[in-house]
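Suppose you are handed a protein chain with no further information: no name, no annotation, nothing but its sequence. What can you learn? This example shows the usual starting point.
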Amino acid sequence: MASTTRLPVTVVTGFLGAGKTTVLRELLRQSQQRLAVLVNEFGEVGIDGQLLKSCQVCDEDESVSAPTIVELANGCLCCTVQDDFLPTMEAVLEQADQLDGIVIETSGLALPEPLLQAFQWPEIRHRTRVSGVVTVVDGEALARGEVVADVNLLEQQRADDPSLDHDDSIDELFDEQLEQADLVLISRADRLSDEQQRLAAQQLESRAHFPGVMSLPISHGRVDPELLLGLSRHEAADPEPESHDDHHHHHDHHHPELLSASLQLKGRWQQEGLESVLTGAIETMGLLRLKGRIPIAGKVLPLQVQAVGRRLDCWFEADQASSDQLNLVLIGRSPDQSRLAAQLASLQA
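A reasonable first move is to predict its three-dimensional structure. Written in structure tokens, the prediction is:
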């Protein structure tokens, strides 16, 4: 990766005990990407950092790149942005050419918004892009009508953090974590009955400020790395912007078996009608993720495609692929590359 490339950043947030570290451990086991992981653990012992370092991704196989794990142990990340986070990010970015991305695990008390705003800091804004915010919620707690499993433990965490400069209630913190999320993971779904899953989903949907982004039940922290690292908070600053945002969001509160497929085709396609074909494929194939690039007739730059659930973004941007090569990755319940190829055939120039 060239050092001029903006590194994608995935922020993982959620209350203490929701399952964030379990998700990260599984991510490091499964992903082949070169990642820097910033863990916002504070106190005398960085427990999360130690757990991640023991995830056994750094084995004898030299082809597997060991993750760079950095502990931010000086308190709640949203309250120590300038003193702790920004210098750490600058240090991490010194090795940007050796990385494919950055993952940040916030503390359970962190407000995501101040952290996201920190990525506008001049020293890092042109070197990174926030690809997505993932909020992990405790499925068992939600099924009981609660937002956190152990309120006393969370309040003790609050008392132990001298840098904390906000006094938001637990409900306010929870709403903020949901408001900023591009993906909500409902943990410990294997311990829930169908009725409990329904109750947990109902709790999420009842939150007044919950924006309706995609939610996914998970077990043992397992999420397809393509989904977790491939989110897209699209920024409107592209050479030839062309976007579509479908605000009818996708909720899936069962245990989908996620499958993936890829499609590669030579040629160029007409832009008119293209988004309709893609949104139709998302709906009929139960896709949670669609991403890639499509060469467009009469356009120098390829059309970049990013979809999370039913939210589809398309824009023109240069990349390193062949000018006449369509590349799409489909992730969901029943991705069918042959079917999509047939649907795209009518639009080929």
